[in-house]
Structures are given as C-alpha cells and as structure tokens.
Amino acid sequence: MSNGRYDIAVVGGGIIGLSTAMLLARRLPRPKIVLLEKEDDIAQHQTGHNSGVIHAGIYYAPGSAKASFCYAGSKMLRRFCDERGIPYETCGKVIVAVDDDEVPRLMDLHERGRMNGVAGVEVIGPERLREIEPHAAGIRAVHSPETGIVDYAAVARAFAHELTGNGGEVLTRAQVIGLDADREGVRIRTSLGEVTASLLINCAGLYADRLALDMGIEPGLRIVPFRGEFFSLTPESSRLVNGLVYPVPDPRLPFLGVHFTKRIDGTVEAGPNAVLAFAREGYRSLDVDAVELWETLRYGGFWRMARTHWRSGVREQYRSAVKGRLAKSLQTLVPEVRKDDLVNRSAGVRAQAVDVKGRLVQDFAIVQGPKSIHVLNAPSPAATASLAIGSRIVDLAQEY
Ligand SMILES: Cc1cc2nc3c(=O)[nH]c(=O)nc-3n(C[C@H](O)[C@H](O)[C@H](O)COP(=O)(O)OP(=O)(O)OC[C@H]3O[C@@H](n4cnc5c(N)ncnc54)[C@H](O)[C@@H]3O)c2cc1C
C-alpha cells in the first residue's frame, strides 16, 4: 500500500471492478487508483465461475442497459481479446423450441434480438438445426451465429495487467470492512489497514448491497445469491454438442434455463440451474452462513419474491438434488445425453438483486451516491458487457 491516499478506490477484483479500474487508468490524467480485493487473487467469484459465453444480446428488453451494454460490450471485448491475443471462439448458439407452446416465446426472442441489432439472428427449422447441432431435438430454433465463448478469468487477468502497467495498484487480501465518508473523501477500513480515496467505486458483486448500506445508501434492493450448478460432459458425450444449445427461457426469470455450453478449452458443460444459496458464497448445497441466511430471510422483498416464484424454486431445488431430473431436462434438448454422461459437478453463485416489492431486478443497476458509485446489479451478461459497463462508470466518475 503506498501512503494509503488515492484518488479512486475500486472495491472488487471481479471483471467489473477490473474493467472499470483499467479504463479509469487509461482515460483519466494520472489518477492514483487502488483496487481492493478480499481474496488471495482476482476473479475468484462470479468472474471465475461462469459459463464463459460472449452473449450477442438477444434476450434483453430493447432499450435496457443490458441490451445496449451487451451489444456494445461484446464488440469491445472481442477487440480487446484480438489486441491481447486472448483466445475466443465465435461458435454460435441455438435457442431451441421443443414443442408448439414454446414457439411464440421463441418468436418473441427473435424479435428482441432483431430490435437489439444482433447480427445474423434468424429463425430456423429442424433441418437447419440438425446441420448446426446434429444431436439437438427441436421443432424450431433461433440461431445466433455471433455468440461466442471465452475464458473470463483470463480476460480479468489481462485487465489487471493493463491496470498495473498504467500505474494502478491491485491489493489482494484487502477485505473492506468499514466505510465512512467525510469532507476529505471516503475512509476505507480494510483487513490490510486504512486507505482514503476521493471517490469509491463499489463493484463488490455478491456483497455490493452491504457496501452501499455501509456508505449510508439504502439501495432499495438486496443481493440474493442464486447458485448455478454445472456438470461436465464426459469426453465421449461431448461430441453430442458443437457449440451452445439453449432452451427457450421462462420470460419471468432472469435465468436462461439449463443448457449446453462448449468451453474455450473444448470441454462441454451442462447447466447451470438456479437454486437459492444459503450463503452469499455458498458453492455447495450444504454451505450455510447463518448471518447471511438470516439477512435474506428477514428481507420482505425475499418473501414477496418467494410468493411469486415458489413453484419454480421448488422445481429447481428438486432438480438440484436429483441428478436424473437434471438429465431429463437436458434430454429435451439433446435426447442422447444420459445421466452418467454428467460428471465433475461444480458451481457459481449469481449476485441477483431483488427489490423491496420482490421483483428480480432485470436490468443492470448502477447507483450514484456522495463520493461513491455502486454497481448493485450486474448478473449475466455483465461479463460480456464488462467493458461497456466500465466505460459508463468512467463517464459517471468524471462528474465527481
Ligand atoms: C453460474 C454463472 C454463469 C454465468 N454465465 C455468464 C456468461 O456466460 N456470460 C456472461 O456474460 N455472464 C455470465 N455470468 C455473469 C457474470 O459472471 C457476472 O455478471 C460477472 O462476473 C460479475 O462480475 P463482478 O465483477 O460484478 O462480480 P465478481 O466476479 O463476483 O467480483 C466481485 C469481487 O468483489 C470482491 N469483494 C466482495 N466483497 C468485498 C469486500 N468487502 N472487500 C473486498 N473485495 C470484496 C469479491 O471477492 C469478488 O472478487 C454468469 C454468472 C454465473 C454465476
């Protein structure tokens, strides 16, 4: 830690904090920037536990921040990867309707994709689907040729490299434990000691609401952790999938439904589901943090959400507990996949904001406070959109 006094402190060494800090160091004249991360290394939470998809921007409501940042961010991300030699692949994706009931929703998605300017997105019939994904079942599909895959932890490391190359500091094992704003700036107590900054940017992912509350900002929402569990396909069954095969999602939920994802290392993953986690960093079903669970349970918004979505919640818990049930869901997309093809269970935890009325916040949420900016909802496709979100935060930071 230099003398502990900075112009800007960014909390969170995930892809959003890192892209923001990197762009600040690139765009502002000689700022003193520190990035504070509580873990031993960067990208240990959502950024290192996701599906690795560069979304093209089909799903999101036209005019929303998700739609515009995903569209712009995916282009910025590819350019960044090209410049740094980070491997990515534009493998394309199909969203598959398996019965007539799903077709109207599929057509809505196609229309959304078109309105969001997604290149090449088209509705295809079963013959074309079989050419792209010979083992997928479906009566119609939306094909998005521009969707791609990348390793977001590698992207985050490249952001950190550029940040430090431009004079920024990255402090790991620096958990922020207290915040106070006064006329001088923000006093930030960390597990490594105190630092001060004129501006604090909160990109703490699963803990972003807590930091906002610490700064005296009532954000009107709370982060509810939703675990997404994955399996890998065995090498023999991986040949059943060429790229990305998704179901038609439930439009009431911000999750995309369990799907098949080719990874940049050539393996194929199946998942993720979306089950309530009993700890913000609860990667296993038995991980319970009593304080965090209590925080969730005494939040009125949680119970209002539960009243609306309890059926899908129970279904997801069951599918999480019974592997055969997950295999059944996957078989609707690719019938040849067997339960025994699913190996090496792993998980990520999504930071999903829920508002006081119990609504799952659909759009990205960035809130400004005195001497601070808070990223309060940045679930998928925030990794895709990270450079666009970072640019937006830099614009906001220039107002301070
Ligand atoms: C299962 C899953 C699949 C996904 N798939 C995709 C996908 O295919 N494509 C896509 O675009 N997006 C995807 N996402 C979403 C994407 O991963 C996230 O939107 C993105 O990583 C969010 O980045 P972040 O920096 O906000 O959060 P994080 O990566 O969680 O980073 C937050 C950081 O803050 C640190 N922190 C928290 N509290 C403190 C504190 N008090 N002091 C210091 N540091 C602190 C944490 O340790 C963490 O490193 C997926 C997410 C999940 C969970």
Structure description:
The chain is an alpha+beta fold and 400 residues long. Helices cover 33% and strands 27% of the residues. The chain contains 11 helices and 20 strands. The strands form 3 sheets. Strands 5, 6, 7, 13, 14, 15, 16, 17 and 18 form a 9-stranded mixed β-sheet that branches. The mean pLDDT is 95. The structure holds flavin-adenine dinucleotide. The site of flavin-adenine dinucleotide has 40 residues, from helix 1 and strand 18.
Summarize the structure.
Helix content is 33%, strand content 27%. The chain is built from eleven helices and 20 strands.
What share of the residues does DSSP label as strand, in percent?
25-35%
Second-tier CATH architecture of the largest domain? 3-Layer(bba) Sandwich
CATH fold topology of the largest domain:
FAD/NAD(P)-binding domain
Shape: globular
Mean pLDDT: 95
- In total, how many beta strands? 20
Helix percentage range:
25-40%
Number of helices: 11
From the helix content, strand content and strand pairing, which structural class follows? alpha+beta
> What ligand molecules are bound, each kind once?
flavin-adenine dinucleotide
Q: Alpha-carbon distance between the termini?
A: 24 Å
The major β-sheet equals:
9 strands, mixed
Count of individual domains: 3
CATH superfamily of the largest domain: FAD/NAD(P)-binding domain
What integer value in Å does the Rg equal?
21 Å
Query: So what's the CATH class of the largest domain?
Result: Alpha Beta
Unreliable sequence segments? none
